[in-house]
Write a structure and sequence with these properties.
about 30% strand, GxxExxY, six-stranded mixed β-sheet, about 180 residues, tRNA_endonuc-like_dom_sf, alpha/beta, nucleic acid binding
């Protein structure tokens, strides 16, 4: 399956999870639901993939810890195995640290890739929006309309801006409904 097709399937899975669970759950609930949805679609992935963090000192390179990518989805394109980083959140809004996390995972996976592997230069950040305490909405239909999942494609070199105008333009694709 081409990378663009697997990305479409990941987004479809996120929307399916949202329609069924809505907002307000912990990130681990959405993680488990996304894993189940991807399995149903026959998508190959690794959950909680360890991503080593290296420090390059003056006398060598040292592994100083590791992060864990929520999902690394695999597909094949041009006879190479291609990884797509998917990071899941359950927060009121997407934050700069979430974007940075996706970028770091892409960069780290590129360092550890094998000869026949590639890492897609864009990752997917999916935020299953957690309603703030100020907004009390009980009806499921209203909740789905007020808090759709935020889905952003994150380029490994994208810089995050806090300006309201750029935030609005970045969020527009997340509000589009799939045809």
């Amino acid at each position: 399956m081409a990378v663009k097709d697997v990305i479409r399937e990941i987004i479809d899975a996120a929307q399916m999870v949202w329609r069924d669970l809505n907002g307000g759950w912990s990130e681990s609930i959405y993680q488990n639901a996304m894993e189940a949805a991807l399995k149903e679609k026959g998508i190959i992935f690794e959950a909680q993939r360890p991503v080593p963090v290296f420090f390059r000192g003056g006398k060598g390179e040292y592994c100083v810890g590791e992060g864990k990518a929520d999902l690394v989805v695999w597909t094949f394109q041009d006879e190479k195995r291609v990884a797509v980083v998917v990071e899941l959140k359950a927060d009121e809004n997407i934050k700069e640290e979430h974007v940075n996390q996706v970028q770091k995972y892409i960069q780290a996976l590129k360092i550890q890739k094998k000869e026949n592997e590639e890492v897609h230069p864009q990752g997917i950040l999916i935020n299953f929006v957690k309603p703030s305490g100020r907004k009390k909405i009980s009806e499921d239909k209203v909740l789905r309309e007020c808090f759709p999942p935020q889905i952003l494609m994150i380029d490994e070199s994208l810089s995050f801006s806090s300006s309201e105008e750029e935030k609005e333009s970045a969020e527009k694709p997340a509000k589009r409904k799939k045809k």
